[in-house]
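To the structural biology subgroup,

Please find below the input and predicted structure for MFS transporter, which we are adding to the shared reference set this quarter. The sequence is reproduced verbatim from the submission form. If anyone notices a discrepancy with their own records, reply to this email rather than editing the shared folder directly, so we keep one authoritative version.
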Amino acid sequence: MKQASHADPAIDPRRWLSLSIVILATFMVVLDTFIVNVALPSIEEGLHADFAKLQLVVAAYVLGYAVLLVTGGRLGDLFGRKTMFLIGVAGFVAASAWCGIAGSAEMLIAARIAQGVSAAAMVPQVLSIIQVMFPAEEKGRALGIYGGVLGLGAIAGQIAGGLLLRADWWGLGWRLVFLVNIPVGIAAFVAALLLLRESRAPERKRLDFVGVGLLTIGLGLFIYPLVVGREEGWPLWTFISLVAALPVIAGFVRYENGLLRRGASPLLPMALFRDRSFRIGMIIALAFYSGNAALYLILSIFMQIGRGAEPLQSAYAFIPMGIGFFSASLLGPRLKKRWGNRVLLAGATIMAVGYLLIIAVSGGLSGLGLGELFVPLLLAGIGQGAVASPLIHTVLAGVQGPHAGAASGVLSTFTQVAQALGIAAIGTLYQSLQDHFASGGETLGEASIDTMRWSLAVIIALAALTFLLLASLGRKRRAGSSHAAGTEPAA
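Predicted structure (tokenized):
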């Protein structure tokens, strides 16, 4: 066995310090996805914004982020991952300052789009940098830390938003949730400038501008109605937009395959999807992340509307989930080395058990129910963490260096689309069930509990689908390993 990995001059001796820098920037991006939710009432009052504009304050960031992730990953392959990371961090800091000084809802929406575009330039580089910076034996651990930070960012965003609003330093109010990014971003930029090594794909080819346009339009048509449709009441234009997205995305795939046949450089190498692990991994990401995003949404609504919690109190409910997620994310890759795919299967099972326990204890909640929900949410977080970080490594394991940026962008895009799907579909179901049970004569508390139970049943079904897909992936890999062992000549 090769033991000289740490002495290899190609391996960056400062890789773990560099990892902390890129993960700090990632944490900032994830934090900003969730921190704004707590501040919406203050933004409504401060900018005299109606509810539609508040929805766009949230949606603009997701849209700018999701539709350009693949493009951001490809730009890193072509022009340098460190370069694109620095551009993304600098843009994010500038856009955060713009958000903080916005004098109108329209200006804030424009600044949030700029934040999302900057995040799309930054985030795909993180996975690519991890892929090229770490040797194989350390990659799983690095991705485990990355996955754990993603989970913490989602939970910390809600808590940090509540704390900043309560602090109200210098009377800045809601503006603090954006301005807090400036010192963090500047520190990440300076450290990355000094520590990160530059890397890019071996061959520098022209950027596929037609592919960028088709993919951006297609994803925009698909994601925008998912993000705003629920609040708009699902008017006809949302369904027209969803249908129109399909031929645009199909045209993108056909155009990219044509470039590949001609020997040109496509934005998205379709060869990525020839790898069965990558292909199934994308479907697993859709099932897994849609359920997780929906859980964050419905649990927050349940705590605030059903149990009467303040925003900061409802954020406390996510603490046990964050503890479980982060702990399992750190241990998951290490356990996967020993136990293989069974770790992910165990994680999906524990996650489903946690959800079932939430259903079991919900009828007997006293007060806010933080004590009764602690163990179920802790188990749910452990299960999520045991799946999330090993899944990233599993999906990207077969991707070669030249396509690392594109693969990272695709994975990040699928994650964002899955979250939009989960929030739109299960969020709509939650509201519909709440109205149904309330109209049947139940009290608000009773209707909230029944609504939570039925919504969790859908999320449990997604956890079961995640389990089945992981099991299928594991069987195929074992079959492939057996075949290889049977055909390999003896030493």
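Summary notes: The chain is about 80% helix and 0% strand. Residues 321 and 378 are 5 Å apart (CA to CA).

Regards,
Lab coordination
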